[in-house]
Design a protein that fits this description.
302 residues, alpha+beta, Sulfite Oxidase, Chain A, domain 2, seven-stranded mixed beta sheet, 12 strands, globular, binds ligand MTE
Length: 302
């Protein structure tokens, strides 16, 4: 995997603008609002050479239950979320706990474009050109204490702006977690942008996790709290149904979801009758991450 050019460098500007116009037509104000500032980001050796899905796929086919369970609900409803001001509480086993303004979190970070494969547990897949920075760099700045073994994340709770939270669809706040070595892996990023612009609300603005070798539900959106712990944290989908959603949830074609096979996947945008493609072990990131799980029974720790 290597990539010297950013996607925005190789995409003719007319195409890029055209995408935005299409989207503005399809999804109203969600992306066309005044908050969408251009972001400068360096290309990354971790980007895939695959062609990203168009912006309109990535911003109109979403899972974000705080805004409803339908794939179009986030694009329709997420504009109501206030993302500025925003702060993140970082606590637990860290040297410098505190509630950090997003601007402080962002100051001095190196933003990169990371074009990643993205695979939902529902067996659909996309390629997404994220903008973000390595979570490890943030954790190093706050100082992880030696007893920390896991990182827990929480999404904002604000039912007045998040219609899905006014219903008991899930046990709010949405929670996720990683083992510390997974969190420190260079592929694990905090994303703040997409296609060279600020993250649209429906994709988890202003800041979300992206862990490309795990099923998409691990990539928690709109994060307001990061906690370093000694114990494996409780996570939303695992609590909801531990038989169906494991803590690890690494993409694995040989471990089926109890209700469907994970051996193949549907590429979003390919059309209803397009052939499915094979699911890749660790979503194609096996070379980079298999070592994290050496000696573990991946059927048991699914
Ligand atoms: N984060 C929160 N807070 N709430 C959610 O419902 N859905 C997850 C994940 N993060 C979700 C979330 C699921 S199931 C997936 S597949 C991805 O977000 C979808 O990300 P995308 O909409 O940007 O493609």
């Amino acid at each position: 995997m290597s990539k010297q050019l950013k996607w925005s460098d190789v995409t003719p500007k007319a195409d890029f603008l055209n995408r935005r116009q299409l989207l503005a037509g399809a999804a109203g104000m969600a992306l066309a609002g005044p908050a969408m500032a251009k972001i400068d980001a360096a290309p990354s050796i971790y980007s895939t050479d695959l062609e990203p899905n168009p912006l309109e796929h990535i911003t109109t086919y979403n899972n974000y239950y705080e805004f409803g369970t339908g794939k179009g609900d986030p694009a329709e409803n997420a504009h109501t979320l206030t993302t500025d001001p925003w702060s993140i509480k970082i606590d637990g086993l860290v040297d410098n706990p505190g509630t950090y303004d997003l601007a402080d979190v962002m100051s001095g970070v190196s933003l990169e474009e990371r074009i990643y494969r993205f695979r939902c547990v529902e067996a659909w897949a996309m390629v997404i050109p994220w903008i973000g920075f390595e979570l490890g760099s943030l954790l190093n700045r706050v100082g992880v204490q030696p007893s920390a073994k896991y990182v827990a994340f929480e999404t904002l709770v604000r039912p007045e702006e998040m219609p899905g939270q006014r219903r008991n669809i899930l046990d709010w706040p949405y929670r996720e977690g990683l083992r510390l070595d997974e969190a420190m892996h260079p592929l694990t990023i905090m994303a703040t942008g997409l296609y060279g612009e600020e993250l649209p609300n429906q994709n988890g603005a202003p800041i979300r996790l992206v862990v490309p070798w795990k099923y998409g539900f691990k990539s928690i959106k709109s994060i307001v709290r990061i906690t370093l712990t000694g114990e494996e944290p409780e996570t939303t989908w695992n609590m909801q149904n531990p038989r169906e959603y494991g803590f690890y949830s690494n993409v694995n074609p040989t471990v089926s979801h109890p209700r469907w096979s994970q051996a193949s996947e549907r590429v979003i945008g390919g059309g209803l009758f397009a052939p499915r493609q094979d699911t890749l072990m660790f979503n194609g990131y096996e070379e980079e991450v298999a070592g994290l799980y050496a000696g573990m029974d991946l059927k048991k720790y699914f």
